[in-house]
Specification:
Blueprint: E1 2-11, E2 18-28, E3 33-37, H1 44-51, E4 59-64, E5 67-68, H2 74-81, E6 84-88, H3 99-109, H4 114-127, H5 143-155, E7 161-165, H6 173-190, E8 193-197, H7 201-207, E9 210-215, E10 218-224, H8 225-229, H9 235-240, E11 254-260, H10 266-274, E12 281-290, E13 293-301, H11 307-316, E14 322-324
Parallel strand pairs: 3-8, 3-9, 6-7, 7-8
Antiparallel strand pairs: 1-2, 1-4, 4-5, 9-10, 11-13, 11-14, 12-13
Bound molecules: adenosine-5'-triphosphate.
Adenosine-5'-triphosphate (ATP) binds next to strand 2 and helix 1.
Pfam families: ABC_tran
Protein name: ATP-binding cassette domain-containing protein
Organism: Cellulomonas shaoxiangyii
């Protein structure tokens, strides 16, 4: 559905060229919700602008729904953009229009006749749960309701792809969950492909099937959510299921392991640790829902027998542990929960 190949974008600047995207390859299949995360300056916005054709890449290609955007005329680009809906952090509705008229706006621009427009707007507002507020004005809506209108408007031209740029950053926790629930529901009902740019790990955990971590315009890690999270010690694993806060006395080499509970049962992971005897202590154990599966993480201390014995035992149980801690060059376990990938 979306294919980025050797995508490179270099901006000229007074201090010399800035490489925003550096040979990026990425494929997102139809009906998938794909998250893009990365620190500020990693290239996320540039990626979105190249995806929508607002920015021409320096080299490489962008293909969306079978159309290669590079080298298209302005008119062809406009047509291609109609196949993409955009949802932003701030919705930007026209205050003087009712929400129905706001949703109708892209249909007017596309020249859809009035009767068809009316039917489609009613359908779209029902889809986002706002059928009963068609005559309201933006000022009468909550932030979450405005974002629903934004989503309905983005879906008006029946796009194949929905691009969401920090869609919930301005919303509270409960409203965020509702909006993300709506996005998943739309994907299920419409089969639409969704790309979500976010700096919030909770958004990725809640809505994404797959995730890509960008750094300096390059893909550092990418894959299905449970796969990247169970790659113990990998950057996305740490960002999405953060290492817990530990007391200062635990600041030494520890063994960390992350697993999908349908691959290894938590009781088997615990049994493997227990078999090591009294010396070994579980410092933290969590099991969290993730992408429709459950992911467990254990942090184990072995002050006397050392980490090698623990690693060997866990490997024998089918787990994939890593040694973490300051000496191992991993994250400082005492640094606390690292909420955020930016
Ligand atoms: N128009 C421009 N001219 C020059 N440099 C630019 C331009 N747009 C972006 N850049 C640079 O390209 C790099 C990537 O920027 P980009 O905005 O894509 O990052 P980002 O991941 O979206 O960051 P943020 O999360 O802060 O929005 C940065 O170094 C930025 O300074």
């Amino acid at each position: 559905m979306i294919e980025l190949s050797a995508l490179r974008k270099v901006y000229p600047s007074a201090d010399g060229p800035v490489v925003a995207l550096d040979g990026l390859d990425l494929t997102v299949g139809r009906g998938v919700v794909h998250g893009i995360v990365g620190r500020s300056g990693a290239g996320k916005s540039t990626l979105i602008r190249c995806l929508t054709g607002l920015e021409q890449p320096t080299s490489g290609t962008v293909t969306v729904d079978g159309t290669t955007l590079t080298g298209l005329s302005e008119k062809q680009l406009r047509a291609a953009r109609r196949r993409m809906g955009m949802v932003f952090q701030h919705v930007n509705l026209l205050d003087s229009r009712t929400i129905a008229a706001n949703v109708a706006f892209p249909l007017e621009v596309a020249g859809v006749p009035r009767e068809r427009r009316r039917a489609r707007v009613a359908e779209l507002l029902d889809l986002v749960g706002l059928g009963h507020r068609a005559g309201a004005y933006p000022a009468q809506l909550s932030g979450g309701q405005k974002q629903r209108v934004g989503i309905a408007r983005a879906l008006a031209t029946e796009p194949a792809v929905l691009l969401c740029d920090e869609p919930t950053s301005a919303l509270d926790g409960e409203t965020t969950r509702q909006i993300l629930g709506l996005v998943r529901d739309l994907r299920d009902r419409l089969g639409i492909t969704v790309v979500v740019i976010t700096h919030e790990p909770s958004v990725v955990r809640e809505v994404c099937d797959e995730v890509t971590l960008l750094e300096h315009g390059r893909v550092v890690q990418s894959g299905p959510l449970t796969e990247v999270v169970t790659a113990t010690g990998s950057p996305l694993s740490r960002a999405l299921v953060p290492v817990p806060d530990l007391p200062p006395e635990a600041r030494r080499d520890l063994v960390e392991v992350t697993y999908a509970t349908d691959d290894v049962a938590t009781r088997d992971a615990f049994a493997a640790v227990a078999a090591l005897g009294d010396d070994v202590e579980v410092l933290s154990a969590t099991v969290e829902p993730l992408a429709g599966r459950r992911v467990g993480r254990l942090l184990v201390d072995a002050p006397r027998s050392g980490t090698d014995a623990v690693v060997a035992r866990l490997r024998a149980a089918g787990l994939d542990p890593v040694v973490t801690g300051r000496e191992a060059g991993g994250p400082d376990p005492a640094a606390g929960r690292r909420e955020g990938v930016t």
